Amino acid sequence: VYYFLEFISFLIFAVSTLSLMLRLLIDSEQNYEYSKSFTASESNNSPHKYRDSFSSSLQCFQSKDLIQGHVLDIVKLCTSSCPFIVSVGIDHKVLVWSPLNHPIPIPTQLPISAKFLPITHVEMSDSGSAITVFSRSGEVKCWSRSSMSWVWTILFEELANDTPLVSFFRKRTQISNGRRKLISRVSRQTKEHTPTHSTLSSRHPPPTSSAETNTDLSSGRRLSLDSNFDQNITTKDASNMEFIIVLKNGAIISIECSTGKYDRAVLSDSPLLCAKKLISPRVNDRIVGVKENGELVVSTVINNKWRSRPVKIDTSNYNKGISLITPAVLLKYPEFNYSTSPSVLPAAKSFAATSNTDKRVGFVDESLNDLQGIVMETVPFVGMIVRAFGSKCQLIDVQSGTVLKEWQIFQFKASTFRVFHPEPSHCRFCGCASVASFSVAYTGLEGSSLIMHTFSIDNRAKNNICLRVERDSRETRCLGFASVTEHQHVLGNVEGWCPTDMNILMGVRRKENSEKIDETEGDNIETEEKVSPIIENSSIFNRVTNTAQTTHTHRLSDKWEGWTMSADGQVRFYEIPDGSDSGLLIKKLGPVSKFGHKSLVVSFGNIMKVLYLGNDSLVEEDSPGDEDLSSARYQSSSSLGFINRRRRMRMKKYDLTHSTCFEE
User: Fold this and answer.
1) Region (Disordered): which ranges (predicted)?
2) Is residue 93 part of a domain?
3) 3-state secondary structure at position 518
């Protein structure tokens, strides 16, 4: 009996011990599985891990971050050919940045009084020596970088609650040595003889008595592409610079940058819908405007005086062997007095969108007489313009009024219409300027799709578009716009973009999986609720959770990505690097502007990023050995020699006189 009781007690002890050990072992295994599944779900569902694995397969933009300047969102950007950027924020700050310096210095803030606010427009000269700021009250102020102060303030009632059609800086025409000798000889003759009205004719104007015309600017710092903005320097004001303002009522205002004196001229006797400056090599500066009735008017500066004339638009008889249409022919022969109204244009042909066209945009049949939405872009090198209204787009020669090309486009946002082309080259048959391709790009009115029309010649022997053919009816050796083939390319979900001098489009778009990342973050909350209570109460889980919450930050690369589109439609996507400051949370990009010849500046809330590819020579021109971002198909090997030589000389002067810091 005792042996039996001892065996029973030992068996009970063994079973209880084994059950206890199994219970502890099972609990530990369950806890391990729970922790393993939780770790796996965290690693798989984390948006940062997802973006890191996605971005590892993509190339990345180079970036220069402009931070610690604005407190609120940036609403306006201003750039020119100088290495500075002017930004205006909701916090009423006007800052000037020097992004090419290393390290990037603190931006210079221009002092603005509360009475001057709000700011409606900002303009900067090509050398960065002067900045003009427009107020809603109609006041215009000019900041001089040489004196680091406001040099003049002028009130224009026409600019109250309005903005100018176009405003820009230009160098005043200097009297040449030969003309100066001629004027001095005429002045000596007038002293010997009795001055009469016929002695001083319009062909020989009297010498000017102003000493500012012959001001020597060789002393002190040269006012070219130079310097750091915020240091007082003893340099004479740029007396040879003037600021031009074109108003909507057709008036042209010319303001001397040194004194603030201004003159008025008449571009048009009727209100203008749009106007653009047109600065071509070896040609006097011009302003092109469009009247309310669609008539084209051109004003040319001659001896610093603006002379305006209407341009008759020829839409039917170009390159027909009738005559070489020039302004002299138009004035001499009344039969070439064509109507300037767009209502005489040929009827629009039906156009079917290609297979790669976005479904959200389309053509709309509207009256061609509705010109309220007209836009105009210039092709400065060859003196042409591209005007678009409704579903029509025309390439017009400003000198003769010849319509070189007319095609149909989609409905577009007026502020996004752009024209670009590769560097012109010599035509191998006639020697005139020619381009390998000609592109027009814009954002569709419905949605955010980028649409690009590229014109090129498929002929292998004559693959360049000669710009002489349509303007000269005697030219039969070359191929012009009558022989081009149109190619359309569409890119959806685009936010901000601009063309560069590399014959490509460059911009930023919202990532297609940015919404999926937000949904993934919501799924992580449900996963945490399914975790075992043992792990939830553990100190290890609390430490991991607190660490994950503290390290989670807003990153621009999670929602935005960069892209480039070449003239032949090749699209490449790039990651945007995250800087030390991601700025404010935003749902939409701010203003975007071109900077230099191959980069763009994008505002993300209260910060800006200068995005580019390749080296950091953003203002100088790349050498032929540098990497070319555009398509090799639309790049010419025989570029214009005198243009390249002029550019190299300009860059040589640039290297000698330029400092990329605004405060030096």
Assistant:
1) 180-223
2) no
3) helix
Half-sphere exposure of 635 (CA within 13 A, CB side): 13
Residues 290/273, Cβ–Cβ less than 8 Å = yes
User: Cα-atom radius of gyration of the chain, to the nearest Å?
Assistant: 33
Sheet holding 74-79, edge to edge: 74-79, 85-89, 94-97, 108-109
- 475-507 per-position pLDDT tens digit: 778 888 888 999 999 999 898 999 999 899 999
Residue 123 pLDDT > 90, yes or no?
yes
CA 12 to chain centre: 86
Instruction: Note the Cα 17 to chain centre separation in Å.
Output: 79
SS3 465: strand
Per the structure block, which two tokens stand in for 217?
């600017």
Give the pairing of strands 59-60 and 571-575. parallel
> Which tokens belong to 176?
């040449």
Q: Distance (Å, rounded) from C-alpha 91 to C-alpha 302?
A: 43
What would the DSSP string read from start to end of 341-379?
SGGGSPPPPP-PPPTTS-TT-------TT--TT-EEEEE
Distance CA 245, CA 2 (A): 119
Q: Domain containing 1: what range?
A: 1-45+516-554
By DSSP bridging, strand 403-408 and strand 392-397 are antiparallel
Q: Render pLDDT for 42-89 as a digit per residue (tens, 0 to 9).
A: 434 433 433 443 334 468 888 999 988 899 999 999 999 889 999 999
- Give the position of tokens 């040589």: 652
- Which residues is 653 bridged to in the sheet? none
Give the span between the Cα atoms of 529 and 538, in whole angstroms.
14
How does pLDDT run across 569-598, given as a tens digit for each residue? 999 999 998 877 777 878 888 999 999 889
What is the reported pTM? 0.71
Distance CA 586, CA 590 (A): 9
Are 414 and 445 a contacting pair, CB within 8 Å? no
On whether residue 10 sits in a domain, the answer given is: yes
Written in H, E and C, the secondary structure of 466-523 is ECCCCCCCCCCCCCCHHHCEEEEEEECCEEEEEECCCCEEEEEEECCCHHHHHHHHHH
pLDDT in tens, 197-230: 433 333 334 333 333 333 333 333 333 344 455 5
If one counts the domains in the chain, the total is 1
Q: Which bin fits 594, alpha (ψ -120 to 50), beta or left (φ > 0)?
A: beta
CA 55 to centroid of chain Cα atoms: 26
Residue 5 resides in a domain: yes
Residue 621 lies in a domain: no
Phi, psi for residue 343 in degrees, rounded to 5: -70, -15
Query: 């065996």: which residue's tokens?
Result: 7
pLDDT winner (highest mean) among 239-253, 302-316, 632-646: 239-253
